[in-house]
Amino acid sequence: MNSHTFKFYKLSNLLIFMFFTFALLAQKSVPLEQRIDETLKQLTLDEKVALLHAQSKFSSAGVPRLGIPENWMSDGPHGIRNEVLWDEWYAAGWTNDSCIAFPALTCLAATWNPEMAALYGNAIGQEARYRNKNVLLGPGVNIYRTPLNGRNFEYMGEDPYLAAQMVVPYVWNVQKNGVAACVKHYALNNQEVDRGHINVIVDERALHEIYLPAFKAAVQQGGAWAIMGAYNQYKNQHACHNQYLLNDILKRDWAFDGVVISDWGGAHNTEQAIINGLDMEFGSWTDGMRANKSNAYDLYYLANPYLELLRNGKTDVKTLDDKVRRVLRLIFRTNMADERHFGSFGTSEHAAVGRKIAEEGIVLLKNTNINAKIAKTNKTSALPVLPVDLSSTKTILVVGENAVKRMTIGGGSSSLKAKYEISPLQGIKNRVGNAAEVIYVKGYESPATKEPDVKNAKNPDKKNIDYAALRAEAVAAARNADVVLFFGGLNKNEHQDCEGGDRETYDLPYQQNELITELLKANPRTAVVMISGNAVAMPWAKTASAILEAWYGGTETGNAIAAVLFGDVNPSGKLPFSFYEKLTDAAAHSLGDYPGDGTNVEYKDGIFVGYRWLEKQKIAPAFAFGHGLSYTTFRYDKITADKTSISENDKITFNLTVTNTGKFDGAEVVQLYISDKQSSIERPAKELKAFKKVFLKAGETQNVSLTIDKTALSFYDVTRHDWTAEQGTFEALIGSSSADIRAKISFELKNN
Ligand code: GLC
Predict the structure, then answer these.
(1) 263 lines ligand 1 (CB under 6 A)
(2) Residue-wise pLDDT tens digits, 432-476
(3) Residue 263 catalytic?
(4) Closest-CA residue to 518 (of 551, 550, 491, 479)
(5) Cβ(78)–Cβ(339) under 8 Å?
(6) Which residue's CA is the closest to the ligand 1 atom numbered 5?
(7) Does the CB atom of residue 184 touch ligand 1 within 6 A?
(8) What per-residue string of b and e applies to 621-656 under the rule 16 or more CB within 10 Å gives b?
(9) Domain 632-750 coded CATH 2.60.40.10
């Protein structure tokens, strides 16, 4: 090819490239709202209404005539649920839908690290995208007000500020994959007992200060494209069609432009659904939830009944068009986005994300020397049990059903078909190799349950469990081990950490307390590892020298726990909720309002939830909100503020240095609480308003700055129906947990 020809060839290629780029840009240049307007004009009444309700268990119609695709929803907050039959809850039996199971959201919250939330959202968003789901039914951010709530494991703890900080990066990073996060369950779904109808009575201040902030942050900072209405009622209206929650607060005050999707079966009335803010109806009990009624979905409240009202002029098209715009906006943001993502699924990268989050979420509750007398009597080392030193450990006994029980299945709608799940026992074996002998005994057992999501699954034969024999076998084995690692806690069985019902006791099930107590007597070098999504009573906590809360860690659970147990990872998790000594220490139980009278439940504790309550009542928790130890220690120094007073529009920054004074690299979560010393109304002794997780090498010192503004000083004023901060003296309390305050600094808020 001579040089002239080559130049022409290059020029023509360049021109072709430029043409297609321009064409693409021209197509992209149609603004979202204009696309919606142009599409809306082309839709028939039937097509509009069809967009607003399910056509199957987890999908709603598109507009085939115009090439507008269906919407496909998928549970759940911890991973992409396996494909479900068109009309039934059961698994469709696909062989290509085994996902990566990520840790439960309590574990994510326990990392106190928004970067982990970002990683989580991106990975689960990629999994959803690949599985062609454009709406992820999660995250859940309902506030933890009773340790008995069966779904606390799907949520982010008792504090609105922590939940708000952790939900925003999750939402944002799911959505950057072209998948809508559907933040749930809006609002006040804080128990499973009577969840389908219970009317929650809560004062306006508690609603805004405690129960709404995480949803508000998800919408206003995370830009959530979908919100799921809750099953319960508020102000005697179902949350799925609720004037106050949906029209007034969510859509008017918060300017939410996304879709409100009902919980499955959460819609109950056509007129209410039309006028009180519901945009998409799923899972209604008009046979859409039972098998194979041919036109079940046409019977939905927002289906034929709505069409009839429209045709008879009994309801306005303006309201209809607002709903349709929101659904079209969802579609154009996801399945018809200019930039079509493709996601990825079941990858080792996603498994690594899950492991990292599980490792960072594990909370070291206790790790003390063993009482010298006990150590002497047992002729054993008095050093802390953790991390296990393999150079001096020859026999490791692993005890407990939770060391082997699959925890990615069960628990209700968040149940997953995981590609794999490393159990704690397997993780320990992977880590220890031939360095020591690992022996396993069950110690306790839970009643077998049938496989969830499997059609016609058989109920397993009821068998008597001989707890005494299991316990005796474990205790005998414990006497001969160098270290005992007990794995217990809760599981995903009914009335444990499971949707649809609450726990019936604060105690550990299956006679675990008796077993733990006996194990500790038999061998003080026992570490107790809780696998759970809730606090439990720990009557043996004062005797145990090592206690870990390891949550539900998902696919890589066992490897994450082993990394912490053997010191490859230094634990850095902090509790996202208080561990009460006893159930009546919790407001919802001492004030007697939980679970309500079957019709109403009154949140008599108001804003005093969790540590806010404990500090008001001067009750010491077993383990405090924000508590979590490390294999190293941290010293806080030079805690100062850059101002002694701030005005309305000012910020104040607190500076300190944190030094890792031990021999392990580690991470510390510096927490900042605010106390209003001159408020005209009652306020909590302290409220979390800032935190930062810092990673420090052994011996390293870092400067830490925490900045707040007037927002952090405000309370919700019910007379003005708005937030307000009163001038006067405030105190900043900086510490390692809500109960471990290292410094207090006073400052003034002055009106301009
Ligand atoms: C369930 C849950 C909700 C879930 C939905 C679909 O009842 O309350 O969290 O996303 O139905 O499974």
Answers:
(1) yes
(2) 999 999 999 999 999 988 887 888 888 888 889 999 999 999 999
(3) yes
(4) 479
(5) no
(6) 264
(7) yes
(8) bbbbbbbbbbbbebebeebebeeeebeeeeebebeb
(9) yes
| Distance from residue 752's CA to the centre of ligand 1 (Å) | 48
Does residue 413 have its Cβ closer than 6 Å to ligand 1?
A: yes
* d(CA 45, ligand 1 centre) in Å: 29
Q: Is 355 within 8 Å of 123 (Cβ atoms)?
A: no
Q: Tens digits of per-residue pLDDT, 293-337?
A: 667 899 899 999 999 999 999 999 999 999 999 999 999 999 999
Contact 33, 257 (CB under 8 A): no
Catalytic option among 75, 87, 97, 263: 263
The stretches of 131-247 forming alpha helices (DSSP H) are 160-175, 204-206, 213-220
Which residues on neighbouring strands pair with residue 88, listed in sequence order? Answer: none
Rounded Cα distance, 458 and 491, in Å: 20
**How many other C-beta atoms lie within 10 A of the C-beta of residue 38?**
11
Closest residue by Cα to atom 7, ligand 1, is: 264
Strands 728-737 and 740-750: antiparallel
Q: How far apart are CA 708 and CA 474, in angstroms?
A: 52
Right CATH for 348-577 from 1.10.1040.10, 3.40.50.880, 3.40.50.1700, 3.40.50.12780: 3.40.50.1700
Inter-residue contact 625 to 575 (CB < 8 Å): yes
**Residue-wise pLDDT tens digits, 34-76:** 999 999 999 999 999 999 999 999 999 999 999 999 999 999 9
Measured from the Cα of 189, ligand 1's closest atom is 8
Which residue out of 231, 260, 263, 289 has the highest number of ligand 1 atoms within 8 Å of its CB and is therefore the one to mutate?
263
Superfamily for domain range 38-86+101-333: Glycoside hydrolase, family 3, N-terminal domain (3.20.20.300)
Q: Which residue has the tokens 């019709």?
A: 599
CA 504 to each of CA 148, 501, 578: distance values in angstroms, whole numbers, following the listed order = 7, 9, 19
Is residue 614 lining ligand 1, measured as CB closer than 6 Å?
no
Tokens in use for 551?
């949550």
| Residue 75 near ligand 1, beta carbon < 6 Å | yes
Beta strands in 478-599 (DSSP E): 483-489, 526-531, 546-549
